[in-house]
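**Protein record**
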Amino acid sequence: MISTLNVAAAIYPNKPYYIQAIATDSDRITVSWGTSAYATEYHVYRSAAGGPFMQIGATGGTVFYDGWLAPSTVYSYYVVPYNRPDNIYGPPSDSAGAMTPMKLNPPTPYANTINSSAIHVTWNSVMDATHYKLYRSTSAGGGFIEIANLTGATYTDTGLGADTTYYYVVRAHNAYYNIDSEQSTIASAKTLPYIPEAPVVFATALNTTAIDVEWNSIPNVDGYRIYRSLNEFSGYDLIEQTMSFMTRYEDTRGLIPDTTYYYKVMGFTYLQDGILSQPAGATTLKIGVPVLTAEAVDTQSIQLTWNAVPDAFDYDVYRSDDENGVYVLIDMTDLTQYLDSGLSPSTTYYYKVSVYDGSQRGEQSAPAWATTKTPQTPGPSTPEPKIELKPEPDINSNVKTVTSGSPIQAFEAPVEEILGTEVKNGAAGFVFPLFLLLAVLTTGVLYVRAKRRNESKK
């Protein structure tokens, strides 16, 4: 029993003011109030959904955290100040209430690999969730970083490293109450090794034996492989491998004129082949056919000329003696003309020319022909003038008898007397050749000497 003196000496705590209750989660409310004079502690009372108040705890401070509450429920609170040394309660505070928000269940995520740089993450929808927060890590042990805040329940995570495992967790979020669900379970997936995408290829014929192949650049490749086939749909063989910075290749490996070739290109890394491109085709150019002309030069030669053909290494010249017969190769030249000589006069010859491009011979030209010229027939010759010779004089009449010991005289008579006055006078009509004249003189001298020898022997 408390005496009157003791009661008079007791000090009553003041009424607490400024009480308030704030829901901080679907199962938690924070209650706070102002300090009460002479109170050493505060007893907290709670009412759930309009029911009776019951003391739920005591604290020496002015904040009380109430947990393990039901979601979407109104809770009311007041506090009573208490002076423990005097065992005296002060007047209770006013009441304050708050409603716990709904409870958000954590989603359950799933992760699926798309390719070498993307993973698709999905999860179930959560009641009362307005958003979902997605977190990613490269370790299952932690280090999760928020990568997306979404209204839907699906997300494609791109730009990832190849051949790498990624881990994901999700939280449901209510924007009205600004609350999150607990963290979900962990979902993981591993990206594929990097597979270079298929390039787009173009092929263009450069000439009769070369095709230019081009393609777009593919990121993160170590190089490209070029394949070729004569069939668009099958039979592709590797013909070249280039570095990563090369996106063009000139194919000159055994190509044939007027032939269609198909190409595919694939990017690759040292760990993974890429995807083959769609085929691109091109047809090598056809070897040109010269236009040939032929013209006789003389009785034994014919001049051939033709137009220059692009990509010609040289020209093959063929000849036949029959337009529809067999044409035989007679020569090769890098010029656009040719003189065929040593032919027979008055004869028709037929010719064809084809182009050689360094590896293949083109189609022979249309035939051209010409007839060697005919030798000219000589006309009647001019008759030589007649020389009328006069009778030779009697040589004996002019020869003197040679006696022993006397000198021999070849001619006693002058030459003029022997041949006549034409020589003496130098007549214009004398045309007898000089050599004939000398022959006559020599013969005469020998005759006279011989005659004299015979007479001297008698």
